[in-house]
Design goal:
The complex is a heterodimer of chains A (316) and B (134). In chain A, helix 1 packs across helix 2, helix 1 (5-13) runs parallel beside helix 3 and helix 4 (61-74) packs across helix 11 (236-253). Chain A has 316 residues and is of the alpha/beta class. The relative contact order of chain A is 0.12. The radius of gyration of chain A is 22 Å and the shape is globular. Chain A has helices at 5-13, 17-28, 34-42, 61-74, 129-138, 158-161, 176-180, 184-187, 201-212, 221-224, 236-253, 255-279, 283-291, 297-305; strands spanning 49-55, 79-85, 94-96, 111-117, 143-147, 164-169, 190-193, 225-227. By secondary structure, chain B is of the alpha/beta class. Chain B is 46% helix and 22% strand. Chain B has a five-stranded parallel beta sheet with strand order 2-1-3-4-5, with helices on both faces. The longest helix of chain B has 16 residues, at 118-133. The chains are: A alpha/beta (316), B alpha/beta (134). The A-B interface holds A 1, 17-18, 20-22, 24-25, 29-32, 87-88, 91-97, 99-100, 103, 106-107, 112-115, 117, 119 and B 1-4, 6, 25-26, 28-39, 41-43, 45-46, 49-50, 52-55, 82-83, 86, 132-134.
């Protein structure tokens, strides 16, 4: 049914939209040839800025992404959006509804929107998110906007995949102590307070600044805790300009390269985890060995992985 | 390997009766599918563009406005134009039987009316996609 990985790779590099869409599916479902496709795509990555948008459900992530897309198009940037929604742990199904707020970009060839289900991954993104972003990067988009699932406090994976992370807040969701908690607050490069027309929005911004100032405040706090209205787009072009300026600074200082290496390290480990999970189906046979007392659980685990050479009876 | 069935559920045109589309979207989600829900007021062009970007297996339209002949024909024509011949176009709403039969003879899949059990729809999609795919 689908085209071969080679053909998809060719189409992808010329920006053919159907090839991009099919390549994304191949990579996401780990279909036959996905590694070959990624080999081609990976050699063409590094051009796009990757910006993550995260925050609790309902704070306005999709609407902000739509507004950022609009602002980026005004500047002639080509934009791809990856919007992640949760997969049900019970049925494996998912309702992907982020396109509802992105209709205004339909018909614009410089915008590509793809919805993705988290498929059991914890942390707010799907397991294949990094690979999917590589494909979009190779397809020639300038700006990749990644929307996480409605995030809880420790869903911080987006900060591992994106070079700039926007954490979005909305009025009415707690006091200064919430802003002092660990997790999401710590991964932000920009703290964005949405719904700026709400009378409480300014107070939320003040709370965030106050919490961040308690200890070793980040630089430029004033310009990094920002008020926007995603719906009316007020403040959004300024936010985009701040993000772009930050990317340029990172590039110049060499920090962008360092961050990229950290990201790749993490992805190698995570790809290893995936292979391990596949191999674990072989654990069934080892259960008998453990039941009969020939192996302990830990022996069986080592047998599963193939014992590393010279790492036998190590004293602990 | 881990390929899930992906379904786009859309409501073309101006009618605002999205209860049916939401019931179907939720039911297909609960049947283990990935459902991309686009909401109300979609043009055929928007629907087919979304189907292409999302690489779906199925497009489901909900039409209660009486304009089903126009919408299904236009969406089918655009899908063929974009090379989406392998994508199943199905749907439902208030569609007289002779119109449904006419559309099916033109290449649209089964169309479902009021009173259909959602499991019937899920089974139909599963059979169509799996049967055709490989």
């Amino acid at each position: 049914m689908a085209a071969s990985p080679d053909k998809l790779a060719d189409g992808l590099l010329t920006g053919d939209r159907r090839s991009i869409a099919q390549a994304l599916s191949l990579v996401e479902s780990r279909g036959e040839g996905f590694r070959d496709l990624l080999r081609v795509a990976s050699s063409r990555t590094g051009h796009a800025s990757r910006v993550g948008v995260t925050g609790a459900p309902g704070v306005g992530k999709s609407t902000l992404i739509s507004a950022l897309t609009f602002a980026a198009r005004e500047q002639g940037l080509k934009v791809a959006v990856l919007a992640v929604d949760p997969t049900s742990p019970y049925t494996g199904g998912a309702l992907l509804g982020d396109r509802v707020r992105m209709g205004e970009h339909s018909g614009d060839d410089g915008v590509f929107v793809r919805s993705m289900a988290s498929r059991g991954a914890q942390g707010g993104l799907g397991a294949a998110a990094g690979d999917v972003l590589d494909v979009l990067d190779a397809a020639g988009f300038d700006l990749l906007l990644v929307e996480t699932v409605g995030a809880g406090q420790v869903d911080v994976d987006v900060a591992e995949e994106a070079e700039t992370t926007l954490v979005l807040f909305a009025p009415g969701a707690g006091d200064t102590v919430q802003a002092m908690k660990s997790g999401l607050m710590e991964v932000a490069d920009f703290w964005v307070v949405n719904k700026s027309d709400d009378p409480q929005a300014e107070g939320v911004r003040a709370d965030i600044i106050s919490a961040l100032s308690l200890h070793d405040p980040p630089d430029d706090l004033d310009s990094r805790v920002v008020l926007v209205s995603a719906l009316s787009k007020a403040g959004v072009p300024e936010l985009l300009a701040g993000v772009v300026a930050r990317s340029e600074r990172l590039e110049d200082s060499g920090d962008r390269e360092k961050a990229r290496r950290r990201r790749l390290h993490r992805r190698i480990v995570s790809a290893g985890g995936e292979l391990l999970a596949q191999r674990c189906s072989a654990a069934d046979g080892l259960v008998d060995e453990v039941v009969s007392g020939r192996l302990t659980v830990h022996d069986a685990a080592e047998a599963l992985l193939g014992k590393p050479a010279g790492d036998g009876e190590r004293a602990s | 390997m881990n390929r899930k069935i992906r379904v786009l559920v859309a409501k073309p045109g101006l009618d605002g009766h999205d209860r049916g589309a939401k019931v179907v979207a939720a039911a297909l989600r609960d049947a283990g599918m990935e459902v991309i829900y686009t909401g109300l007021h979609q043009t055929p062009e928007m629907i087919v563009e979304a189907a292409l970007q999302e690489d779906v297996d199925v497009v489901g339209l909900s039409v209660h406005s009486g304009a089903h002949l126009e919408f299904f024909r236009r969406v089918l024509a655009l899908m063929r134009e974009q090379g989406l011949e392998n994508v199943l176009l199905t749907g439902g709403g208030i569609i007289p039987r002779q119109d449904a039969e006419q559309l099916m003879s033109e290449g649209v899949g089964r169309l479902f009316g009021p009173g259909t059990h959602t499991s019937e729809l899920a089974d139909y999609i599963r059979e169509s996609v799996r049967g055709e795919g490989d």
